[in-house]
Amino acid sequence: MLAFAFAHSMDLLRELDLECVRRALETAPRDRQLFLNLHPTTLKGGGVEEVLALAKASGRAPQELVFELVEHGPDQESEVIGAMAMLRRAGYGLALDDFGEGASNLRRLLQLRPDYLKLDRWFVNHADRDPDRRAVVRATAQLGRELRIQVVAEGVRSAALMELVHSAGINLVQCYRFIPNGLHDPLAENEGEPEVDEVLNPALPGSPMLNLMDSLEERSLDALPFGVIQLAPDGTILQYNRYEEDLARRKASDVIGKNFFTEVAPCTDVREFAGRFHEGVGARELHASFDYVFAFSPPKKVKVTLYYSSTTDTCWVFIQA
User: Fold this and answer.
1) Of 20, 35, 64, 279, which one has the fewest beta carbons inside 10 Å?
2) Which residue ranges form the domains of the chain, and what is each CATH number?
């Protein structure tokens, strides 16, 4: 995620995306179907020809590969859809990623007619406790049946969610740190590599993520595996990512523009939390981590990191459950 954010700032997004495709084709196991993400920028301006060349050079049969169109803005939509159509004519499978998020909407679904529809993880997370999200899961499953498209549920993190999506009629899932009994993790042999959380950990001194926070788009913030809140110097909430929505069970639309310490989380209006924030903002220097207990029901013990950005004169609050 950080690499793509940096590549975007250097106008090297296509180069990085193509390198990821090439490496995946070289190293992924060959005894199973391979799904490959494609950023729409890569497909524009004839880039689809480069993708086709890489796929052909890999020696993999077209039926072994599925290209996923990741979520993006609606600009040059017809060109992107046309490029995906070229991949289909070449015999490759297609998937629409992050359905329900941003531009991944019903219109694109009908234009692309993918083989797989991947329901965005935000709708799946906590669907076992949220009847509204549960309704979306069931409606998407029904839509897939009607259009004869296989639905994949993203973000299945527990046996309860696995049972829920299966009862809705969804038989394909994408898991993160949840391996159902009887299944083997094909990447388990990659032991020794740093965990993603360690690489992205904002509490670590010199964490590369801290220097990129101000340039990350909303989608990138939502992809982080911990809560993220951006505060103005007076404590007003400017951004509030999806993980934090799930953790606090409060929608971003309900809290943005409100004061975090006095209106949203008054349990933090103490010296240990708000005091550190105000002192750091006043000094224009802050990078502190500490354990804290939020007054949720039931209470939730978390690790909090406060980081002041002199570039934007705002403070980032990271909450790791």
Assistant:
1) 279
2) 9-175 (3.20.20.450), 197-320 (3.30.450.20)
